């Protein structure tokens, strides 16, 4: 592999990193809102979100990416490949994150809530000061796990022509006729991204364990 | 003008799933008074206490704290969350299971509500917290987390946390029932000090000796009805009903 091949690989890795990064960031926050709305059990909204979560979790990422990319123009939306990819990844990861947040909500102790209300906190202050800090820590291991699934699933955006880390290996081997070196190099780069997350996850788990005592 | 009652409960009734747990309960707690609520398990003691700060909503009757009605606003509608929160801030509650917030250190547990409910500055809240931790003997533990504390220590922190709001009335629901016997004394000691300082308190307890020593008024609940209400010297020595006599024989055998 020559330097231009390495340049392409770096470009692909960067594309994977930022497309996944944006989807993860939006997906974690949006997942929290979806979970909040579900916990509130507002009629209709509850059913709609439940259906969305079941659908998004059951649909393969490749299908979702294609669906967004092909239907957006028919709805008059002019979006490029990257945006379509980010929307699809976000829709997917939000659904999984919402379930992680929701289980943290449901397992949260009612005693702490009563202590907060009894002392004069409004439900909002209770949520922000007592509940959110704790469910963030207890949800982190699950959220980080989902982040690594998302990164590993992100090559799905290649079907609509986004040149990410997986796709770039095809391009290189098309020129060099040696598929193995770029694939190994790409695999190593995925491992770097994932091990960063795994390291984060260990930190989070250590904190979560301390809270659980 | 007659003195306004710290807590005034009038004809309170409450059912759970069609079973009446409190019936026509009326009770006045004067400022500075200590009232103990006694009764066997399931008689409605916790429910009565939890109605006072609206953790449970009664079906009928009303409750006034220092002259202001809780739960129902002047217009007759249910109070908004904000109104209810500010009424509850005037009541301190101590739970059987402590209910400390595990993500906050001892001193943060005590400063949390003064800062985020009363709007005190961090420095003001800390000053107040340290004075209270001193009072309950927990100053050295100020930066420790709840999971490192014994039950008795947790309960003393929980008392300091409630006191930090400078409540009009303190409510205790069996504050020593979850403690190992050797830790009961340290918590009862703190509550006794509060009674000497003139705090108004409503106390659910199974500690008969203690109730006798600190109470100005003892109330006995039987199946959701107050069947006896008297001064401890009367209640423990000369109960009016057989029900109470039997209860006392079981709970506090004569020595
Ligand atoms: N949230 C609830 N839902 C249904 N029933 C309840 C609820 N809370 C209390 N009860 C019932 O109401 C009755 C009175 O309960 P309460 O907790 O007030 O009794 P208690 O006098 O405090 O008893 P203990 O000494 O065991 O704490 C019991 O029969 C209990 O099962
Ligand atoms: Mg009880």
Strands in their spatial order, largest beta sheet of chain B: 6-7-8-3-9-10
Shape assignment of chain B: globular
Radius of gyration of chain B: 18 Å
Named once each, the bound ligands are: adenosine-5'-triphosphate, magnesium ion
What structural category characterises the helix and strand content of chain B? alpha/beta
Largest sheet of chain A: none
Quote the average pLDDT of chain B.
94
Largest sheet of chain B: 6 strands, mixed
Query: Could you say which structural class the secondary elements and strand pairing of chain A correspond to?
Result: mainly alpha
Helix content of chain B: 25-40%
Termini separation of chain A comes to 52 Å
Radius of gyration of chain A: 20 Å
According to DSSP, the number of beta strands of chain A is 0
Low-pLDDT regions of chain B: none
Could you characterize the architecture of this molecule?
The complex is a heterodimer of chains A (213) and B (255). Chain A has helices at residues 3-39, 45-58, 61-74, 81-106, 110-118, 123-153, 165-176, 180-212. With 213 residues, chain A is an all-alpha fold. The radius of gyration of chain A is 20 Å and the shape is flat. The longest helix of chain A has 37 residues, at 3-39. The model of chain A has no long low-confidence stretch (mean pLDDT 90). Chain B is α/β, with parallel strands linked by helices and 255 residues long. Chain B contains nine helices and ten strands. Chain B has helices at residues 45-52, 81-88, 106-116, 122-135, 151-163, 181-196, 208-214, 232-235, 242-251; strands spanning 7-16, 19-29, 34-38, 60-65, 68-69, 91-94, 169-173, 200-204, 217-222, 225-230. In chain B, the strands form two sheets. In chain B, strands 6-7-8-3-9-10 form a six-stranded mixed beta sheet, with helices on both faces. In chain B, helix 3 runs parallel beside helix 5 (151-163). The model of chain B has no long low-confidence stretch (mean pLDDT 94). Chains A and B meet through helix 5 and helix 6 of A and helix 2, strand 6, helix 3 and helix 5 of B. The structure holds adenosine-5'-triphosphate (ATP) and magnesium ion (MG). Adenosine-5'-triphosphate binds at residues 16-17, 21, 39, 41-47 of chain B.
